[in-house]
Amino acid sequence: LERWGPVVTVPVLLLVLTFGLLAQATPARAATLDVCPGTGTYTTIQSAVDVAASGDIIHICTGNYNENVDLTGVGGDITLEGDSAVIIWPDSGTAIFVTGGQYPGNITLRNLTASSVNGVAVDFSTGIAGNLVISGSSISDAEFAGLYAGPVTGQVWITNTDFAGNGWAGANLISERPSEECLVPDNIPVAISLYHVDATDNAYEGVSASTTCGNIVVTDSTADDNESDGFLLSSTELNSRVIVIGSSADENGDPPQGFGSGFRIEANNLTMHDTSATGNSADGITRVGL
Known about the structure:
With about 290 residues, this protein is mostly beta strands.
């Protein structure tokens, strides 16, 4: 394990990178569409999405929304932003999704709770051509995965978000950044960043994150009490790195799956410090060779 500079340097650098990317990923405020039954311009989230243009922000007031929100028609940068206690939980199917191939823009989700009684809670499995940014949210209690996203050709940034009690992985993240971005060893981009993420009591991995090019950074995050691995992290490009700081993956491998490591890592370069991986049914850290 290689230490990457002074302990304080990495978190500060990550915060700078995070805020820099959030500024880039947040679309221009072309319009803010207000969703609030009884008082807002729109009574449902989908009705606002249906008229949204690229760059718009859909602001959602507190409440329960029994909807399947399809973002496909926007065709460009879109933000769903909730007040406190915004819950999207349909009677059937996925809460938030895209269809019909790779989504051509950035998707940002803020301050939302999403779930599904018989599917994936948030499904971007057809891919995203831009960035995926999720903050202040809970994606939990879905029958299958909480979040399935990828391939994402931009960057994935998830902050202050939990994935709990899902019937498959809490979050399954796949990044496919252009290989030419990883040709210079000292200038490798961040592909996936998890900051203050909590993945607990999921039926398989807490978080599965893989990339073909770029670094995976996990900071101040936990993946405890999952039935398989806590964090399954794979960065297969030889110059790229997995970086884990101030995090924990404890007590994973619970029945009925009953087998899992705290961290299962496939990467040519690995940096870890101030991190725990105790009480897992397999190893604390399993290193898989490229």
